[in-house]
Design brief:
Radius of gyration: 20 Å
Order of helices and strands: HHHHH
Distance between the termini: 49 Å
Number of helices: 5
Helix content: 55-70%
Structural class: mainly alpha
Strand content: under 5%
Low-confidence stretches: none
Number of strands: 0
Shape: flat
Mean pLDDT: 84
Length: 156
C-alpha cells in the first residue's frame, strides 16, 4: 500500500513541478534553452521514477535477500529514528559549513562520513567515491553549466 501512495505522490509532485516550470518567463535573449531546461529534466526524472515504481508494483515485490535490513513490525524503530536523526543533524551541519569550507571540501567531508557509516570498512572506495563525486559535480556545475559555487578555503 505504501508503494501506491508514494507512486501517487511522485505523480502529483511531477505535475506540480511541471506546472511551476511552465510559469517561468521565457527569455528572448541569452541561452537558447533558457531557465526551463533543468526543471524540465527534473520533471522527466520524476516521471521515470514513477514509471519504475509502477512496474515494481505491477510485477510484485520479490522477497528480500537473506540478511537484508527489514523494517518489519518487529524491527527496532529506535535504531531507525537514531539513524534518521543523525543524518538530519549531519546534513544541517553540512549546510552551516558549506560557505565557509566551500562546495568541494564540504561535500567531500559530508559524503565521506555518510559512506563510512553506511558502507563501513571500504576506506578506499568511500574516499574515492566522495572525492570523485565532489570534484566531478563541481566541474559539471562550474565549467559546463556556469553555476557559481562557494569556493571556501580552496583557491578555485
Amino acid at each position: 500500500m505504501a508503494d501506491k501512495v508514494i507512486f501517487v505522490c511522485i505523480l502529483v509532485l511531477a505535475a506540480a513541478y511541471a506546472w511551476a516550470t511552465e510559469q517561468l518567463p521565457s527569455l528572448e535573449i541569452g541561452d537558447p534553452l533558457g531557465p526551463k531546461a533543468f526543471p524540465r529534466l527534473l520533471t522527466v526524472g520524476l516521471v521515470i521514477c514513477a514509471v519504475v515504481l509502477l512496474l515494481e508494483i505491477i510485477r510484485g515485490r520479490k522477497p528480500a535477500a537473506p540478511g537484508a535490513v527489514s523494517m518489519s513490525p518487529g524491527a527496532s524503530r529506535t535504531g531507525v529514528f537514531k539513524i534518521v536523526a543523525g543524518v538530519t543533524v549531519w546534513t544541517f551541519l553540512f549546510f552551516l559549513a558549506f560557505e565557509w569550507l566551500g562546495y568541494v571540501l564540504a561535500t567531500s567531508i559530508y559524503l565521506l562520513a555518510m559512506f563510512l557509516y553506511f558502507h563501513p570498512g571500504k576506506w578506499k572506495t568511500n574516499v574515492l567515491t566522495a572525492l570523485g563525486f565532489a570534484a566531478g559535480s563541481y566541474f559539471m556545475f562550474v565549467h559546463l553549466l556556469g553555476v557559481n559555487l562557494a569556493p571556501g578555503l580552496l583557491p578555485f
